[in-house]
Known about the structure:
This protein is an alpha/beta fold. The chain has an 8-stranded parallel β-sheet with strand order 8-13-14-15-16-17-18-19. Strands 3-2-7-20-21-22 form a 6-stranded mixed β-sheet, with helices on one face. The chain is globular and about 80 Å long. Among the domains are: 1-87 and 512-557, Urease, subunit C, domain 1 (Roll), CATH 2.30.40.10; 103-217, Diaminopimelate Epimerase, Chain A, domain 1 (Roll). Helices cover 34% and strands 18% of the residues.
Amino acid sequence: MLNRRSFLTRTASLTLATSFQATRAADRPLDIALVNATVWTGNPSGGRETAVGITGDRITAVGAELVRARTAKTTRVIDLHGAFVMPAFVDNHTHFLRGAVMLTQPNLLDSKDRADFAARLGAAARSRPGKWILGGSWDEQRLGGELPTRQWIDGATADTPVAIPRTDLHSFLLNSAALRLAGITRNTPDPAGGVIVRDAKGEPTGVLKDNAKDIVQRVIPNPTAAETDEAMRKGIAHGLSKGVAQVHNPEPFDWNTYVALRRLRTQGETGLRFYTMTPIQDWEKMADIVAKEGRGDDWVRWGAVKGLSDGSLGSRTAVFHDDYADAAGQRGVRVNTLENLRTWVTGADKHSLQVAIHAIGDQANDDVLDLFAEIAAKNGPRDRRFRIEHAQHLTAAAIPRFAKQKVIASVQPYHAIDDGRWAVQRIGSNRLKGTYAFRSLIDSGAVVTFGSDWPVAPLDPLTGLYGAITRRTIDGANPNGWLPDQKVSAEKALICYTRNNAFAGFTEDRTGQIAAGFLADITVLDADLLSVDPEKIPSVKVLRTFVGGKQRFGEGA
């Protein structure tokens, strides 16, 4: 149980101390001087610099002359030998706790055949007999294209229950032991917004889609607080090693990450900054927390809610205007009804909570844009910053609506080079024009932000940059880029990973740029991302990551 009064007192004290420190920092010598660097500031006015100075948790000098003037004997001077310095990456969309837990689960995603897939799960089952196996993730496209079944893995896993997610997190694969524990039989009905996949005889195959996952999640034991904290710390270290200083965490189902982060924050700085979102159906609970306790601090913030309008393309549960090209009569699954979404979004927005809604299919995106327009008009003007998470498949008419309605397009570039291997099979060539339309959205004037959707995709902004800039699918089949007219320039991609993400999380006044007075969240790389061959971006190395003025990854950390 969190001690609310203790947390509030600590947060208030830290906020006052941070404000005082920022004011006094400008008068003190530098604590750290990064010199002989290639600095991309991310500032809208552009320009390059060669040095950055840090005092306390703030950037207090930008440019060689200013840094030199404020360098004292006590300053730690780091010669970067021309390394590339930039505002630290911000990831707009992670499922951080799940991703952190999966760091210690079996790696399944690069399995190439059924036998190897089963063998990896069998090894995991033998190493932890009787304990649930909840990761890694699978992708039937890498296993021949056919959905896996419980029969694939039963022999290898025996009585060890298995509930592993598809890479998009919208489907689970269960073995027979897990089906028994969940009480799922041929007579179990499909829940609203979910599908229990069945074979020709009506028996469950082991695959559960969208809301059907809830049936098994009810019987999976919760980890202890100590286990959760250990996983979170491993996830934080992993993020810092990738040059990430902050993540947004939109969770539509549970409060587990929020609770874990509140607990970690009472123990001190979290090392990585978090903007955590909670389920939109619980908006009243979050509104009450904000009213009584505020919205946290720059380490752990809250005050946003996330909901789902549909499923995923890979699971054929994304909602489209027309049938799937490879599944006549199917147009997706509404995970929540429009009536429920309307009620929840109206209430949350009226109480000044930021609202983010997941939408994949073109129908789902149109529906959410319509809802946002209706509710903005009803609740009146304010700086609300509605977000659509993923915005993957859009009609031509939807693209300009993001800028017109001031809706943020929160997209994940790696999905384009992953799904691009097979998306045409799902929706046909005619609908590809509005698919992962990053360039069109940016050119239309929309605020576009980039992230990973970790663990659906790697928590690695460099792979996301590579995807956005090159559009080369991960199977190597599109060397000139899949839908190449949607390629994004390197600088615009960097803006989407820094300044635009800061705006999307209401921290543009202190993060997302290298500027005096901003928080000293800085990433150092071994190559200039604005001039390196885009094909070499995945091999660029993160040398150092600074968060809040402290080096938290790299030599000397």
